[in-house]
Specification:
globular; single chain; Growth Hormone, Chain: A; mainly alpha
């Protein structure tokens, strides 16, 4: 009996597998895209807005495919789904290195986005909810932090590779290395549910047998997806997802912004490494904070803190040290997308039909990508400046404080109406 208690619960191996998978897929691919914008536009002679339009196409594909992603993960072997996902995502990213026309980005961003939905968006929330009764916030924080940890290594490496070997080689290198690492990791660690290993969720075995029925009932409390989608709380959460994603989308333009201020691509890569360190620290901090003071208070704190880097980047972008500090803080705040998004969803709507509700709410992420990413690109292309974009980011941070308050007020209405049970 003592031996069983000392054994490492398999949930932690699931978390390790998710951390490696998300770390490489996000840190090596998703957040690296911005480093290539300036070199590619200069080499191919296309406008920043025209190239960044592929981000918008990616967001449209994500929005259209998200409603089906949860069903795919529930119906098919999850390891097979994730392996196909990483091949689509990383393989398509590598193919950018062979392209000579902007249409190549428009074409290959489609399979890249479909793969990314499973690998970087859906896998962690779904599997953590299945495997963790305790430490959900910490587990989500660790997964998001893994993207920051790997990004802190891969972003500066990518910046130096672009400077020394060119953007084509770097696209191919990153895509291939992600596949080489992630595919074996998925095969070795990922399992769909504790039943496959003859286990309960982490922490569930601490519940007394006579209280097990009550514990299961408690775990299933919340509102149905049908009720949630008609509530003011859902639309407030949808707006939160939209604005926080629009805020985070500026990360793709940190490198062009840095080069526009006068820095080179190697420094831009280092700055993005700072962004990733901020994501790493923020993800862990938000996971712990949400367990301590709640998702609502943590989210409001994150939005207010986000005003600090905006102020620095508007006023003194030419100072290397302050520029890097600002980008680190910005990354810290953006970590709230991956950590607080799922936690806010469960805090507001419960766990009864969490998967369907979260899958619907994150459409706000996709819509933001459709609007914000090309808008930023065209604004920069037309004005030659990122100042107005930063002012817009500041405004969105303030609006998001309001959306959080509205969302939790909406939860109170659901509870008062007897729909939260």
């Amino acid at each position: 009996m003592d031996q069983t208690k000392k054994r490492i619960h398999y949930a932690w191996w699931i978390l390790l597998g998710l951390a490696i998978m998300v770390g490489f897929a996000k840190g090596g691919i998703m957040t690296a895209g911005g480093l290539f914008l300036t070199p590619v536009t200069e080499d191919l002679g296309v406008g920043m807005g025209s190239l960044s339009l592929y981000f918008s196409i990616s967001s449209i594909v994500t929005m259209l495919f998200l409603p089906f992603a949860g069903k795919f993960m529930a119906k098919y072997n999850i390891r097979l789904v994730l392996i196909v996902g990483v091949i689509l995502q990383a393989g398509s990213f590598a193919m950018f290195g062979f392209m000579n026309s902007v249409w190549g980005w428009y074409l290959f961003c489609i399979p890249m986005s479909i793969g990314s939905i499973f690998v970087t968006q859906m896998a962690a929330p779904v599997l953590i909810n299945k495997w963790f009764k305790k430490h959900n916030g910490l587990a989500m924080g660790i997964v998001v932090a893994s993207g920051g940890a790997m990004g802190a290594i891969l972003q500066p490496m990518a910046g130096k590779l672009i400077a020394s070997e060119g953007w084509r080689y770097t696209y191919i290198f990153l895509g291939v290395i992600v596949m080489i690492v992630v595919i074996p990791t998925v095969l070795l660690t990922i399992r769909k549910s504790p039943k496959e290993k003859g286990l309960q969720r982490l922490g569930e075995d601490e519940v007394q047998i006579e209280d097990m029925t009550a514990a299961i009932t408690q775990e299933e409390k919340g509102v149905t997806a049908a009720v949630a989608r008609k509530s003011s709380a859902f639309y407030a959460l949808l707006l939160f997802f939209f604005f926080i994603t629009a805020i985070g989308s500026f990360g793709q333009f940190v490198a062009p912004f840095a080069m526009g201020v006068g820095y080179d691509v190697a420094f831009a890569g280092s700055a993005m490494g700072g962004w990733s360190i901020g994501v790493l620290v923020g993800a862990l901090a938000f996971g712990v904070l949400s367990d301590k003071i709640g998702a609502k208070n943590t989210a409001i704190f994150a939005m207010i803190l986000g005003l600090v880097p905006v102020a620095i980047l508007v006023t003194i972008p030419g100072n290397k040290v302050m520029f890097t500090v600002a980008i680190c803080i910005y990354g810290f705040v953006v970590a709230s997308i991956g950590t607080l998004g799922p936690l806010l969803t469960s805090a507001i709507f419960g766990t009864k039909e969490y998967g369907q509700i979260y899958g619907s709410a994150v459409i706000g992420l996709a819509v933001a990508g459709i609007v914000a990413l090309p808008a930023y690109g065209y604004i920069a292309q037309i004005t030659g400046s990122y100042t107005s974009i930063l002012y817009a980011v500041g405004l969105m941070l303030i609006i998001n404080v309001v959306t959080i308050i509205f969302a939790f007020n909406g939860k109170k209405k659901l509870e008062a109406a007897g729909l939260w049970n």
